[in-house]
User: What shape does this take?
Amino acid sequence: MKQHAEIVYNKVEENSEYESIINRVIDECFKNEYLDGLKLYVSITLTVPEEIHILNKTYRNIDKPTDVLSFPMFQPDEIAKMIEDNYQEEDILGDMVISIPQVEIQAKEYGHSFERELAYMVVHSFYHLMGYDHMVEEDKIKMRAKEDEILNKLNITREG
Assistant: This one.
């Protein structure tokens, strides 16, 4: 099976558990959105708060660290056309940057597992790459439904 995720470590030690969680989630996202037959992939950088802070300030003009950043390469209509045309060029759907220490903090804060929090960050970022957002309530409801669908299919629950 083709890898849909290219995982890069920036000031975080390589970890096969992280990779397993990420690949399971990304593979399910690709399958769910009919991208699994295409040669698209996502680049996922696992990093620390200091590094994500720099990116957040540079690209969003927000001078603080965050948990996850998403950098889509295509508009939703372009993605739909790629699926329709069975696009077979190897291409990047977008970039994700995830703060591993922040995943650990939020897992404890929300009372669930590291696996669940990392899986949520990945699925959340994936749907940003697909053009979903959560700035208005109507859009938030659609995005949350997509995220929950993936996590439920993988049996990754808030309690898990």
